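Problem 3 from the worked examples.
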Amino acid sequence: MVQILHLGDCHFDDAYYLNRPERRRLLDESREQALRAAVETAVNRQVDLFVWAGDVLDGERRVSLKTRSLLEQALSELKEAGVEIAWMTGNHDPKCYLESQGLDQLLHAYGVHIFDGPVRTVGLTARDGSPYKIVGSGHEEKGLMENRLKTYPVKVEGVVTIGLLHGSVQGGTLQPDGGQSGESLGLPPGLKPEDLYFPCSKSDLRRLGYDLICLGHVHVPYKIDGADLPAYYAGSLTGLSHKETGSRGAWLHRLGHGGQTSTFLTLSPLEWRTVALDVTPEWSLEQLNEALQAVLKNRAGQLMLRLSINGVNDKILTALRHDQETLRDRIGNAVEAAEVELRFDMVPERVLELQRTGDTFAAHLSRCLENPEFMGAVWSVYAQRALGFEYEGEGDGHEENEDHAQVLQAALHDLWPRWMGGQRYGGGGRS
């Protein structure tokens, strides 16, 4: 039997959240803990092969001393435990980047099997003495757009063969979370057409006949759709943003005479979750917390929560508008979240009542425009403040002032539909 622990995109030393130090700290700590957990799992379970499926490093900055030390410690522990290591270069950390940072020398020093260019095959032996092969390639430079999978050799009957690639498998993918970017094109979850590095298809994978294919590049952990296609994306080791929700970790694959099995192991202590709650007027703040606790009862780790509150509730709306920091703290304590981001789309209860009765601002204004007494009062204020003379009221000049009020009324009648139709003044000119 051959056991493989398969990690996806780690993106160490990325440039995320440099202007948000607390979130940055949580992300760095989570990634470090997840890698340590992966190494510990590999050692304790005595796996045969530890696969890094590309984009271990983000490649936008120099490798930090902390990351270099963390990687060296992981490589040392794996080598000491007799675990073979396979490292693919990705679109973020291609061969040229590894060489510029001197990391290729570090990997060679620990006997890592590096796949950083054209296809190559490595023959290995599992702990139980059974032979197996790994076949893979990697990115030499950023932006590998060719379908290199067409150059992979097909499996030789009787030899367990594992394929490695960091790229985009198109067509008929499973859809975690109910959707994906580029769905009509059959793109992997979260990818846009411009992200299609190393593009290939399910038929390309199926042609190879491999016992297992370890994939990198897509940040969602999932299996490629197809009972006869043992191809898996490991996803990001720890979620990088609210776009990467759910549990994160690595795949544990087993290949033997009984076939192939794969189990996803949650390793990241951090989980990003996005929740939407629809509230009603009778809800209290305590009921809001209780509803949120019920939704989040099955979470995997430390929570990074984005909460969207919709509906009608004056108590909650007041807290959101005037004391949001306290509300965030209360919610964070209730669900034990490391971070709470609040969004809301709510209206006051009074506004909802006005909408139900038709007693809206537009209706009020329309009635006022038809009221001569109101228009006379408007003209009085306008004449005094804008034109600089007093409105006389009843008596001398009353008819003239009444004419002025009618002119103003006509002007407002003319302006009102134009205003509501978007012909407004602003920014020093018409928009």
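Problem 4, a separate protein:
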Amino acid sequence: MTHALARASDDDAAVDQAVLRLTAEFRTRLRPQVIGTVVRNSRRDLSGVPATALPELVERLARARLQSEDRSA
């Protein structure tokens, strides 16, 4: 497995874990599809972030966006 492929797999796992945690946190207020979309968009928006910081930053950004979405709903 190449380094780029390994990183992509790690990123996918981090995104999947963030979706699971945030779905548990927001499940009574937002649909799972919305949560997944917000997490994936957050990941895309953080594409230039160092790999070691990515999992935490994706989850933080997605949580902030979900809280904003929840308030406006």
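Solution to problem 4. The first helix runs from residue 3 to 26. The chain is about 80% helix and 0% strand.
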